[in-house]
Design a protein that fits this description.
alpha/beta, 4-stranded mixed beta sheet, 18 helices, 11 strands
Amino acid sequence: MIRNRRPLPLVIIPLAVALTAAACGGGGSGSPSVSNTAALRPTVGAATASVDDVNGAKASAACLAKVKSLRVAVVGTLNDATKSADAYMARAHPGIKIDLSATAGNYTALTQQVTADKAAGRKTDVSVAELQYLPLWKNQLGAKPLSAKLLRASYDQRYINLGKVGGTIYGIPQQVSIPVIMYNATLLAKAGVDPSSLATTDGLLAAATKLKAAAPTVQPVDLPTDGYGQWYLNALGSSKGAGTQTSDGAPAFTTPTARQAAAFLAQVGKLGNQSTDPTTGGLIKFGTQKSAIVGATSAAVAQFTKIIGQQGSKAFKVGTLPFPTLPGGTERPPAGGNALVVLSDDACQREVATEYVVAMLSPDLIAASTQAISYLPVDTKAQQLLAPFYATHPDLAALNKLAGSVVPAEQWGGARGAEVPNAVNDTVVRIFTGANPDSALDALQKQAEALVR
């Protein structure tokens, strides 16, 4: 929750909303609450949800006769999307009541809500889980195994692995994001920087030198943290084929690749104060042209660029690229975002809940959602429907080409494994603020090993 901050000028609030509304697509649980600007969040237009009658995607008549209601809990940014699924259920099964809760401001709040409801005997049937925390939803909240056979032929099967825990599907990826950088094309041109040079960390640092010379009052690079720090470190490591976790799930924060990534982050820290909050820090600084390049989630791009374009004389062209790779690396961005999960213990509740999940994955609904919040479309038909949208957002269209290269979010085991992402983020903050990167990683490795025992 954002606390003890001066009120934002009204002209700035929409800039904050662009990322606030999509912040749950990032790489961590530190996304700020959206409650203070809920009226300004991006909205999903009307869409037709449907379910193909294949492979048990529809509940049986026997179960439909028994089930009277379905409890659904999602984050606030999914409120509009769920309305389409609710409308489908009302048409297909008029006797079933959908008990929807969409008040949680981020994934952390949603997890706490579902946990508290379970403890109070109010079992949730359908929810969304942040991809990196799927093990928690499986082990503590009772997420049930799902089958890829339930899905339409148009569902992009390259995303299925993102919803697996231990090789079994426990969540169907619905909204997938990747880390990106956005840049002020006007400032880059003034500094003589070719945007394509930002593809690597060396190129980004070289561009920062040019930007400082051309625009001394503008911070060249701002990489906000607040949950994103671990996303950056993982993205950099993954670009060289090794993230910060071994194949058997152990922490790997002291590898040569991790140290190379941390050394780059230390260099970025010397370019100026890196924002803590991606919303009221990172995007506001960038949107008011106080920084030239900002780290963000791809889910924020469409709404943010739209808002910047509406700023009249203060508007500028925004470019977007995948987060840089280490020199010699290739784009293997780690996934952010969420997966739909079914939590019902009763077999019939589970059948109806599964049908609701499949309705939420309707191509029309995926397309409508993507235009509001620019997640990677997980359905190929939805991507076709979005052709006009991508014609006006070529940078987003280019990100879709990475679908086959997206790597699963790191999932940490152990009783306290869910604390590892925050520990990594805190370490990145320390590196940004001057800590020796090698010493910081050594300490992180020991901390992570203790958390995953």
